[in-house]
Design goal:
Strands 1, 2, 5, 6, 7, 8 and 19 form a seven-stranded mixed sheet that branches. This protein has a five-stranded parallel sheet with strand order 10-17-11-12-13, with helices on one face. Strands 14-15-16 form a three-stranded antiparallel sheet, with no helix packed on it. The protein is an alpha/beta fold. The longest helix has 21 residues.
């Protein structure tokens, strides 16, 4: 691959990257997708997806397999390696993987996504996707009339708690500080809701279950050291996301929170490099919005290449 210059390299293979690949491949661009460290993105750790248009409830990994097959059908090529360096200073751009594969590209779409911040407590990995999740919008409907816990105190946690009142009247928020950090309006909406209980100055120390699903969690009061058990059927971790932009630092413009700066719909700060999905989206964070921006980035890349 190092002897040729690719028309388009797509970094990332989640909904954004694969949708970009489908559009680019159909346009005859012969895109190359670098899978990355976690092929398939966040949906690979999701159980059932119920809000993907045109698909009845489908397992997250199965949905990603279908989208990948779709991209392959139109001629997308895949490289199962992880990007470790990129040179954006001159064209064609140069990309280097962890296996020292060097790739030249006329254009790039960055769709590296974001990584949900985790609690790091015992039981979290075991029950991830089995009651432990980061997306109330995605999974909330599974827990109708059942007790749920939201971990966090910011805007996302408040949004999740408010959203879950559509399904449950037994909602507990666990927050590490002695007061919430969300905006005042969102705080009031939650604090004044009788369905929501808030436990302050506490952290989750252990997640427990029956082997198949979460049944409870253990929390520790940071002030007193006292431990207690909270029965729950679901734990929504809402302590933030970290955009996967480490290798783009000082090479492309980033926001204060580390997201890629988007200019004119999908363009980054470097002409010829575009972006799609959660790596540039701190707001919506949905598979379908990622796919939509993947389509947009592919169309913009096609237009850019035609001008070249």
């Amino acid at each position: 691959m190092s002897n040729t210059v690719e028309n388009l390299v797509i970094i990332g293979s989640g909904p954004a990257g694969l949708t970009a690949a489908i559009y680019a491949a159909r346009a005859g661009l012969q895109p190359l997708v670098i899978d990355g460290k976690n092929p398939g993105g966040q949906l690979m750790g999701t159980s059932m997806v119920e809000n993907w248009p045109g698909a009845l409830p489908i397992m997250g990994p199965k949905l990603m397999e279908c989208i990948r097959t779709h991209a392959e059908h139109f001629g997308t090529r895949f490289l199962s390696e992880e990007l470790v360096d990129i040179d954006t200073t001159q064209k064609p751009f140069t990309l280097t993987t962890h296996k020292k594969t060097v790739i030249k590209a006329h254009s790039i779409i960055i769709a590296t996504g974001a990584t949900p911040r985790r609690l790091g407590c015992p039981g979290e990995d075991e029950y991830w996707g089995k009651g432990v999740t980061t997306c109330a919008v995605c999974d909330g409907a599974f827990y109708k009339d059942r007790p749920v816990v939201i971990v966090g105190g910011g805007d996302t946690a408040m949004e999740d708690a408010s959203f879950m009142t559509n399904f449950s009247n037994d909602i507990t928020i666990v927050h590490i500080l002695d007061k919430l950090t969300a905006c005042q309006a969102m705080q009031e909406r939650v604090i004044n809701n009788p369905s929501i209980k808030i436990i302050y100055e506490s952290t989750v120390s252990k997640i427990m279950g029956n082997g198949d699903h979460v049944t409870s969690l253990e929390i520790v009061n940071k002030k007193t050291g006292e431990t207690s058990t909270v029965p729950t059927d679901a734990i929504f971790v809402a302590i933030g996301l970290s955009p996967n932009t480490r290798i783009f630092k000082n090479k492309l413009e980033l926001t204060d929170y580390g997201y890629l700066v988007v200019k004119d719909f999908t363009k980054t700060s470097r002409e010829g490099i575009f972006t799609a999905g959660d790596v540039a989206d701190p707001r919506y964070r949905q598979a379908i919005t990622s796919a939509g921006t993947g389509c947009m980035a592919a169309l913009d890349a096609e237009k850019y290449l035609k001008k070249m």
